[in-house]
Specification:
Shape: elongated
Number of strands: 5
Largest sheet: 5 strands, antiparallel
Structural class: alpha+beta
Strand content: 25-35%
Length: 139
């Protein structure tokens, strides 16, 4: 096999041609020329979605569930003062199995025992079944 440097010796060290009449194309514009040839549109989004990590909802023990029920009863008794509470709850993911644990802090407007939701003054509602922990000024 011939040495490439020897084979192209007459042109290898020549300067790169630059047009005197046109300015050089930006790297962004050069890359855009090849965009129509992207073979798998949306593939990167699928890979990103698959890499996104979700958590599974932990089941409460009987003691933890009992403690949450007691705290809920205390909140029901004092709902007229709109107590400030901090809930740790599980929010299911809309696109894949699992979800994430979130914390909501705010003034409680009411507890709907029929729909089984905590209603906050900012109109956000959190399902009682998704609550993992309740903290607040009353406890």
């Amino acid at each position: 096999m011939k040495n490439a440097r020897n084979e192209y010796r007459d042109i290898i060290d020549m300067p790169h041609h630059r047009s005197a009449h046109r300015k050089p194309m930006s790297l962004h514009d050069r890359a855009a020329q090849f965009a129509p040839f992207a073979a798998l549109r949306g593939y990167e989004d699928v890979i990103e979605e698959e890499a996104r990590v979700t958590q599974q909802k932990a089941d409460l023990s009987e003691e933890e569930a009992f403690a949450l029920d007691e705290k809920t009863c205390v909140l029901l008794e004092h709902i007229a003062i709109h107590p400030l509470v901090k809930l740790t709850y599980f929010a299911p993911d809309a696109r894949k199995e699992g979800g994430a644990y979130r914390v909501k802090e705010g003034k409680l407007r009411r507890i709907d025992t029929v729909a089984r939701v905590f209603c906050f003054e900012d109109r956000e509602e959190i399902a009682i079944d998704m609550i993992q922990d309740i903290e607040g000024e009353l406890f």
